[in-house]
Amino acid sequence: MLAAGSAWRILEAEHSRLRQLLAAITSVLDGDAWTRPGAQLNQLRRLIQEFQSFENQTHRPKGVVLLDSMRGRLVEADQLLDVLEEEGRKCEQLLAQALELLGVIEQGGDAETDEVASLLRQHRELMVRQLDREDTVLRSYTAQLLTSEEWSAVASSISVMVEKVRGRRARTED
Questions:
Q1: Angstrom distance (rounded) from CA 161 to CA 63
Q2: For a Cys-Cys bond, which of 77, 109, 134, 147 suits 138, CB 3.0-4.6 Å?
Q3: Over 70: is that where the pLDDT of 170 sits?
Q4: Alpha carbon 150 to its chain's center
Q5: DSSP-derived 3-state class of residue 37
Q6: What pLDDT was estimated at residue 163?
Q7: 130-148 tens-digit pLDDT
Q8: Alpha carbon of 100 to those of 60, 95, 130, 135: distances in Å?
Q9: For residue 17, what is the enclosing H or E element?
């Protein structure tokens, strides 16, 4: 199915971008300059915010029609979707906590840098596992459960989201 292949190519490219952002965050964490106010702390915050923005405004909206099309068809698929949603909420919480602690560090406060590193490493672990499941198990379920017509609707909705993102980027670059 052409629509399924097109949709998954876009989603996989986005997964690749999310993995790149996770690697960049980890790279900053591997140094210790981020543990005090300055350029590295600002870079870490910017990377986290870029990850959040990409995940929430670009990637996640593309999956809405896909995931909604799968709901209620297979118990195992529904269980996977529930786990992915719960892990997604947990990832959001971890990043919010890390950003809060980075704010304390930036203000010269006494924040546990080990806790920040732990939160971000937990986030990375959960997110990588989630992306891997989406690329394998979720993809398998979609191939099994969705019809050609449903894939057309999914590909259409993804196309609309791609155009919205391009429009946002064009407005920001002007």
A1: 10
A2: 134
A3: no
A4: 24
A5: coil
A6: 84
A7: 999 999 999 999 999 999 9
A8: 23, 9, 24, 31
A9: helix 2-30
Name the CATH superfamily for 2-161.
nmb1532 protein domain like (1.20.120.520)
pTM for the full predicted model: 0.91
Q: How does pLDDT run across 51-101, given as a tens digit for each residue?
A: 999 999 999 998 888 999 999 999 999 999 999 999 999 999 999 999 999
DSSP three-state, residue 118:
helix
Give kind and range of the element (H or E) at residue 140: helix 139-145
Q: How many C-beta atoms surround the C-beta of residue 86 within 10 A?
A: 11
DSSP 33: G
| Domain ranges for the chain | 2-161
Residue 123 near residue 91 (C-beta atoms within 8 A): yes
User: Quick one: tokens of 133?
Assistant: 């499941």
Tokens linked to 58:
């670009």
The amino acid present at 115, given as its one-letter code, is E
